[in-house]
Design goal:
It is built from 1 helix and 5 strands. It is globular and about 40 Å long.
Length: 76
């Protein structure tokens, strides 16, 4: 299995654990390789037609995406 990583604005590399789609928005579930934590980022397309990762807009959005992630993997 290939693992893909991204570097965030905290200058740490994160492994992409999963992708969640909600209301035509794509989100990445990320895990830090050097710490036991994870984060969620929304994928947007910028003016140059490149994908960028941004922080979520609210705690409700974060909760919703984690809920969908759990629902997709509860039988794993």
């Amino acid at each position: 299995m290939d693992l893909y990583t991204v570097k965030l604005d905290d200058d740490k590399e994160y492994v992409i654990i999963d992708t969640v789609v909600n209301n035509d928005n794509k989100y990445l579930i990320l895990s830090s390789s050097d710490e036991d934590n994870f984060t969620v980022r929304k994928v947007i397309v910028d003016n140059n037609n490149e994908e960028c990762l941004i922080k979520l807009d609210s705690e409700e959005e974060y909760t919703k995406i984690l809920s969908l992630f759990y629902k997709n993997h509860k039988e794993d």
